[in-house]
Task: inverse folding
């Protein structure tokens, strides 16, 4: 039975004490509705205190009917359900599903329609509700017998169901000219949205990674890694012929590793390319396990927040290791160098996750959103969603767009990502990620890596198997070929003619020198690359790019590295080439003093230089008969 | 009721080879499933799993002392025109070799299950369909074993026979012992070898731990097997 507010007070007189009603904090109400909420509280309190309805209504400039309606919201309702009390005073708040209490309109008594008429019809005829539900579900599940879901099709089904249940021809919906078409359309949209949400909730509720049942929240249990193109144009100032030239750069990418349970950012890497490769991911892992000392910022106004740091750089220094590493299906994540390092060396689990479900790694995506809000989307030169993004630079600034220098961007990322680690989060019970990480490492069992093992971890050290070539009939030195270039070394003379393959180890940032080992474990010493590739440190990616494009761009084969740099310099007006120029410059100088990249080569062609350490007869005793 | 062996049904299945080797996962399948990789102990190679249930199932096998070894994705079979790769091949110390398929609700269509049962019976193996739900019911235990396997793999090159003997003696003397009693949370470096020794004994089945109810922690109880 439905109770009015007076009937409820007769049944439960203790509710007449307004002070005993649950309190709703004012902060929980939207700011523009707080005044109405306070007024409603005063009305309810005064009526419950025994003042006359008319006096209260006059005092608050409302009608007495409005006062009754308000009290009915708070105290009225079905007898079997508890009253809403304070929740009923929230303006425009609906915490209870509305339902029709009046009879449905008929031809004899059309009435005014009233609220929830269509829901009332469905409540009276469950067969119609079931029929509509079946049709909607079939369409959403893409069942073979389903109809295309449209309001018109559903309305046709609705009319058929009405006839099927012999619905009286003088009752609603036959009393309305549209036969409840618009109500049905609204019902359809609501149900589709509800079912879609339920499907998504089921999909996300599947046991993946951590589940609610295990409760295994632990630092270093799982790490989420992803990369993101920064929606920001950068610039560098190029010093050329004593002139400072500002260069507009294409968008760079940032790679971030986040601890999934403590939300602590383990490290980041700014990759000067739109499409990072495996070397960038390995550089990120290297920064996580070997964080450098705190940086000295050159950008004015930038400084670390108090106590802000990445966990690997903490004074107590709990070593960083990897448990389950959650990645997406990008090609670079499937590289053997990456899975080999994570699984074979770190013992981690690589989880590529279900396809097309980035929400599995929601935390790292939220960090990218944090970077956007705090850093990259704050300048007017942002083109976040599309070139027509209203946040792009103005017409006036288009030729000289406001852009952040690359160094300022790198420093800003360092500041905001370390600041993220010391920002309290509601999801962590208002603890900071770094404090939670420390607490887990100190008070719980977290995987530990002793210094002996941690020192052996070298993410940027690569290795490969190479065939040994020896053109003995030409009297030439034995050599190996790695990434389209020949390598020579005195160690190869020991095994030439004996071993067909060797193993080489190298630093991925500089592949000019390889260290060779025989399969038996014999140290064969260093192997030097052919002289045309010796001038600057370079990575395998750079050499492969030059090899692929040398003919197309007519790069000089005698000094391909300098030729590549000159090519980029000539095309510095293109932002993508300018970004590659900065990346190549950093690679060639290897963080050291600026190299004389543009200095001409010596007059002797590098290919003609002879190695005084080699004589063709040295390996003669190895020749096979 | 067990099915009577029918050689006609067994011949419906064809195998390239019946030596259990992990079949490489093609790239399209890697991106279509919840693909996972980990270096395990009883399958000492880079093991590939096509779902979380398979990964947790392998972890439970790691914790079962009766299981000597297992191979994920062991054979490539053909049933009619259909290709089929079972999920796991398990070698036990006493029982017959088992070939396991993990399915939600343990449901495998009859047109696959019956020929496969006869085919593996012909070759001296038992074919089982395990419900994924039974694996998820032991999720905490499996997650604990995944973590232990990670630690064991990480420390695979360290030799700790003295530390193992020391842990055995301590457990024999103590009535009740927890993980926090064996390792020093304030100086993990010093007690790291004891930690490794304990997990090696646990993996070998010489020591038991309470891993089924709660995640591995400092208060996890350890007892020596008698």
Result:
């Amino acid at each position: 039975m439905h109770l009015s507010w007076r009937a409820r007070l007769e049944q439960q007189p203790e509710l007449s004490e307004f002070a005993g009603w649950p309190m709703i904090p004012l902060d929980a109400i939207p700011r523009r509705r707080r005044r109405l909420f306070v007024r409603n509280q005063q009305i309810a309190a005064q009526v419950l205190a025994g003042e006359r309805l008319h006096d209260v209504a006059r005092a608050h400039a409302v009608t007495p009917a409005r006062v009754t309606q308000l009290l009915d919201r708070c105290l009225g309702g079905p007898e079997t359900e508890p009253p809403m009390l304070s929740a009923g005073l929230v303006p425009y708040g609906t915490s209870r599903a509305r339902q029709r209490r009046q009879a449905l309109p008929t031809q004899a008594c059309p009435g005014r329609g009233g609220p929830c008429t269509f829901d009332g019809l469905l409540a009276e005829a469950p067969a119609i509700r079931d029929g509509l539900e079946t049709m909607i579900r079939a369409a959403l599940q893409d069942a073979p017998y389903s109809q295309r879901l449209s309001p018109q099709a559903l309305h046709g089904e609705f009319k058929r169901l009405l006839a099927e249940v012999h619905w009286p021809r003088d009752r609603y919906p036959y009393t309305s000219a549209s036969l409840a078409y618009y109500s049905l359309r609204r019902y359809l949209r609501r149900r589709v949205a509800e079912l879609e949400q339920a499907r998504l909730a089921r999909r996300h509720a599947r046991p993946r990674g951590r589940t609610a049942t295990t409760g295994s929240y632990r630092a270093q249990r799982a790490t989420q890694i992803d990369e993101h193109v920064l929606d920001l144009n950068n610039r560098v100032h190029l010093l050329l012929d004593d002139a400072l030239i500002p260069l507009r750069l294409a968008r760079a990418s940032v790679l971030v590793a986040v601890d999934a349970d403590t939300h602590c950012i383990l490290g980041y890497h700014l990759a000067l390319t739109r499409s990072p490769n495996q070397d960038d991911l390995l550089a990120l892992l290297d920064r996580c396990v070997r964080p450098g000392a705190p940086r000295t910022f050159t950008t004015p106004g930038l400084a670390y927040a108090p106590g802000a740091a990445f966990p690997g750089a903490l004074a107590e220094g709990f070593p960083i290791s990897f448990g389950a590493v959650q990645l997406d299906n990008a090609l670079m994540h499937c590289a053997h160098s990456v899975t080999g390092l994570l699984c074979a060396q770190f013992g981690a689990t690589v989880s590529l996750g279900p396809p097309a479900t980035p929400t599995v790694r929601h935390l790292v995506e939220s960090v990218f959103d944090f970077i956007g809000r705090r850093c990259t989307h704050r300048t007017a030169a942002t083109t976040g969603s599309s070139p027509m993004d209203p946040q792009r630079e103005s017409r006036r600034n288009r030729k000289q767009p406001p852009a952040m220098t690359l160094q300022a961007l790198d420093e800003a990322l360092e500041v905001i990502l370390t600041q993220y680690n010391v920002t309290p989060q509601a999801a962590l019970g208002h603890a900071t990620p770094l404090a939670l990480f420390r607490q887990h490492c100190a008070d719980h069992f977290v995987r530990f890596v002793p210094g002996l093992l941690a020192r052996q971890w070298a993410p940027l050290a690569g290795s490969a198997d190479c065939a040994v070539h020896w053109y003995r009939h030409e009297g030439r030195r034995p050599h190996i070929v790695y990434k389209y270039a020949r390598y020579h070394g005195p160690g190869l003379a020991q095994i030439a003619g004996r071993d067909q393959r060797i193993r080489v180890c190298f630093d991925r940032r500089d592949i000019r020198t390889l260290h060779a080992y025989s399969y038996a474990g014999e140290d064969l010493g260093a192997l030097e690359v052919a002289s045309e590739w010796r001038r600057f440190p370079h990575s395998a990616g750079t050499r492969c790019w030059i090899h692929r494009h040398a003919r197309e761009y007519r790069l000089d084969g005698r000094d391909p590295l300098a030729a590549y740099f000159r090519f980029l310099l000539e095309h510095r007006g293109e932002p993508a080439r300018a970004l590659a120029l900065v990346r190549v410059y950093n690679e060639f100088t290897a963080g050291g003093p600026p190299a004389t990249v543009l200095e001409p080569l010596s007059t002797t062609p590098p290919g003609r230089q002879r190695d005084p350490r080699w004589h063709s007869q040295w390996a003669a005793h190895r020749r096979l008969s | 009721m067990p099915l009577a062996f029918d050689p006609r049904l067994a011949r419906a299945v064809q195998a390239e080879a019946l030596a259990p080797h992990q079949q490489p996962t093609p790239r399209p399948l890697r991106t279509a499933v919840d693909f996972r990789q980990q270096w395990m102990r009883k399958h000492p190679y880079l093991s590939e799993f096509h779902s979380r249930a398979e990964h947790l199932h392998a972890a439970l096998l790691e914790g079962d002392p009766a299981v000597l070894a297992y191979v994920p994705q062991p054979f490539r079979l053909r049933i009619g025109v259909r290709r089929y790769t079972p999920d796991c091949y398990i070698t036990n110390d006493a029982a017959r070799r088992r070939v396991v398929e993990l399915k939600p609700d343990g449901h495998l269509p009859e047109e696959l299950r019956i020929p496969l049962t006869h085919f593996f019976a012909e070759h001296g193996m038992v074919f089982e369909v395990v419900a994924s739900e039974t694996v998820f019911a032991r999720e905490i235990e499996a997650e604990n074993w995944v973590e232990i396997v990670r630690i064991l793999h990480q420390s695979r090159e360290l030799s700790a026979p003295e530390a193992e003997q020391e842990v055995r003696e301590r457990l024999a003397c103590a009535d009740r012992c927890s993980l926090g009693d064996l390792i020093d949370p304030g100086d993990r470096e010093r007690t790291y070898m004891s930690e490794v020794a304990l997990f090696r004994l646990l993996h070998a089945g010489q020591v038991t731990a309470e891993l089924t109810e709660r995640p591995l922690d400092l208060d996890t109880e350890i007892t020596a097997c008698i």
